[in-house]
Design a protein that fits this description.
Number of helices of chain A: 8
Number of strands of chain A: 3
Oligomer: heterodimer
Order of helices and strands of chain B: HHHEH
Largest sheet of chain B: none
Helix content of chain A: 55-70%
Number of strands of chain B: 1
Number of helices of chain B: 4
Number of domains of chain B: 1
Helix content of chain B: over 70%
């Protein structure tokens, strides 16, 4: 990994991004993740003679994939906080259960169709990764769908089932923000968490 | 593992499978009952994700004690769950976005709509540039 970095110092930043060699596009953590998926597909965690070969083969295949289909790196990076990360997963699971029951009750309740709202939620951290994770989590939790995402401004437009008026829309917005806070604390970098805390502190000050 | 423990696991597995099946059934009913595209999306993609996860947990609990390889087969179930969780939002987002932009939604069912204002102002600022191109 040192070779591309010394090159970086010589050339200008934008030029490097354009001409960077294909090998430089390989991200080791992503490659390891793909290797794990490969091994799961071939049931290679079960101890048997060909396990090691499968691991090596999987790693080579993931390197090849990343050289043929290079992707931009995950810019601010991420960091897994064990305690908060587990809390984040439990929080999302709990929300899923609670919201499933709520949506099910709307499905089964007789009467006129349920109303809903489209709300705009501005992210308080400027990390693309966190925004994607919040989008996935909101989509997984019943009762909300992402309709539109605006990447440069970091705004998610969420369709919320059952939010009939302004107050309920504001409550839904607060829910998405709470989710963002959990995710940022679970997998955000130190800077992301610092950003979030700054916003939280200023909100507390204004209220 | 002891006989009783396996039996307890079996009962939990049965409960998970039944709950998952029930959620999928509710998703189907919701698909028929909801009036417009966006709310149908909720019914189609959501209770079903949790339903599938519950069914996977149920299957996992069933195979865990039965064979020596149970733990390793559960890895495949994790993979199924992972891909479901990662892909459903993408499909859902695309359907919702296209549905919204082509106007296939019922405006009378929307309480507040903060996206409409923004699209309106976007069209206003972009129309000048687009006219030059075409």
């Amino acid at each position: 990994m040192n070779e591309p970095q010394t090159k970086k110092k010589v050339r200008k930043k934008l030029r490097v991004r354009a001409v960077r060699s294909r090998l430089g596009k390989v991200q080791i953590p992503v490659a390891l993740g793909m290797t794990v998926v490969w091994m799961l597909l071939f049931n290679a965690f079960q101890p048997r003679p060909e396990s090691l070969g499968l691991a090596v083969l999987g790693f080579l295949v993931s390197l090849a994939i990343m050289m043929v289909f290079p992707l931009p790196p995950i810019v601010p990076g991420f960091r897994f906080w064990p305690v908060q990360g587990v809390y984040m997963l439990l929080y999302i699971l709990g929300k899923m259960f609670a919201a499933s029951i709520e949506v099910s009750s709307w499905v089964l309740r007789p009467g006129p169709p349920v109303k809903s709202s489209v709300i705009a939620v501005r992210m308080r951290t400027d990390s693309d990764l966190i925004m994607v994770c919040v989008a996935i989590a909101t989509s997984i939790i019943p009762g909300s769908v992402i309709v539109e995402a605006s990447q440069p401004e970091h705004v998610l437009y969420v369709h919320v089932l059952g939010a009939r008026n302004q107050e309920e829309a504001a409550k839904a917005k607060k829910d998405v923000h709470a989710l963002e806070e959990r995710i940022a604390r679970g997998i955000g970098t130190r800077e992301n968490i610092a950003d979030l805390e700054a916003v939280l502190a200023s909100e507390r000050g204004s209220v | 593992m002891s006989e009783e423990f396996v039996q307890i696991l079996d009962w939990i597995a049965i409960l998970c499978l039944l709950a998952g099946a029930l959620l999928s059934l509710i998703a189907g009913i919701g698909l028929l009952r909801f009036p417009d595209l966006l709310s149908r999306m909720h019914a189609a993609s959501k209770p079903q994700v949790l339903g599938l996860l519950l069914v996977l947990v149920g299957i996992g609990l069933r195979i865990l004690p039965q064979e020596e390889t149970g733990v390793f087969s559960a890895g495949t179930l994790v993979l199924v769950g992972l891909f479901q969780v990662v892909t459903v939002p993408v499909a859902g987002h695309i359907v919702a976005r296209v549905g919204y932009r082509t106007g296939r939604i019922r405006r009378d069912l929307l309480g507040t709509d903060e996206l409409a204002d923004r699209l309106e102002s976007d069209r206003f600022t972009k129309s000048g540039a687009e006219n030059n191109v075409s």
